[in-house]
Amino acid sequence: MVSMLVGTAVGAQGTIYRTTDGGVTWTFQQSGTTLPLQDVDFVDANTGTAVGVFGTILRTTNGGTTWTPQTSNQNATLYGVDFLDADLGYAVGQPQSRDNFVLKTTDGGATWTRQLTPTTLFLYSVSFVDANNGWAVGQSGT
Length: 142
What we know:
The protein is an all-beta fold. Helix content is 0%, strand content 44%.
């Protein structure tokens, strides 16, 4: 949610809906994918990122009028995404191998770097308060 009035929701088959009136009405947005989306995060009214299955990452810089695919180089389901600003962001999910990871970008998602974590359990959500301090939560109370 960007504000009390502006918010975006994602879901099955690449579904994206946006509200600008606090949820009274919702407008469908074309995502360009039919893959399920798991999470979305906006840093302002225009700039947002959605993540989903098979490493799907979509980015908008115009409030969702258009969504552009980004390359994660992962075949994992991404469950959570969090951006501190338009450039610095993190995504977490279910890896295909036994190594868990956090994906990090410092260039608005043009490139994503895999950061290994000390757990092999799935991570479902991530939240950073600044460039150095954040939390990821996941399976079995991780």
